[in-house]
Design goal:
- The chain has one helix and eight strands.
- The chain is α/β, with parallel strands linked by helices.
- The protein has two domains: about 55 residues; about 90 residues, Carboxypeptidase-like, regulatory domain (Immunoglobulin-like), CATH 2.60.40.
- Strands 1, 4, 7 and 8 form a four-stranded mixed beta sheet that branches.
- Strand 5 and strand 6 form a beta hairpin.
Length: about 160
């Protein structure tokens, strides 16, 4: 063991060691901030790219349905399921139009476009109803799921 290993550090040595620690902390902080900024820019570009692809496919009439609407159709008076109800994109909207039927328990699963539009739910012996679905473009990713339970009134 050397005799000078136990000597107290000088002011300059302490300052140098302290500055090194500060520089290392600052480098770590800047690296993390740069990584977070890079990730946010990447996510923003991916989101905007998917929105542009969706819009281009819509204009070219090649839109792919990616919005799933699930739920149950029920009688508004007694809450019993309405079997075989028809769920359609509203024909007053823009094509393409998608369709599904509820099962014997009133449950349905409609695959349609993510943009805001309306669907029409109808069943024999009930008044049809029209309900808005989807999301405005800046709140959605091109895929999503919406739960929508519907009540139909008997005629």
């Amino acid at each position: 063991m050397r005799s000078d290993d136990l000597r107290p550090a000088t002011f300059a040595e302490e300052e140098t060691a302290d500055l090194r620690r500060q520089y290392i902390r600052q480098i770590v902080r800047l690296t993390l901030a740069f990584g977070a900024l890079f990730a946010l820019v990447f996510l923003a570009l991916a989101w905007s790219g998917s929105a542009v692809r969706f819009g281009a496919a819509r204009v070219a009439d090649r839109a792919v349905p990616t919005w799933r609407v699930v739920g149950t159709v029920r009688n508004a008076l007694n809450q019993s399921p309405v079997p075989w109800a028809s769920i359609d994109d509203d024909p007053m909207g823009q094509p393409p139009f998608y369709h599904t039927d509820a099962d014997r328990n009133g449950s349905y699963d409609l695959l349609t476009l993510a943009e805001p539009h309306r669907i029409r739910i109808a069943a024999p012996g009930y008044h049809p109803t029209i309900i808005g679905i989807g999301r405005i473009w800046f709140l959605w990713l091109p895929r999503g799921k919406q739960t929508l339970d519907v009540q139909l009134y008997p005629e």
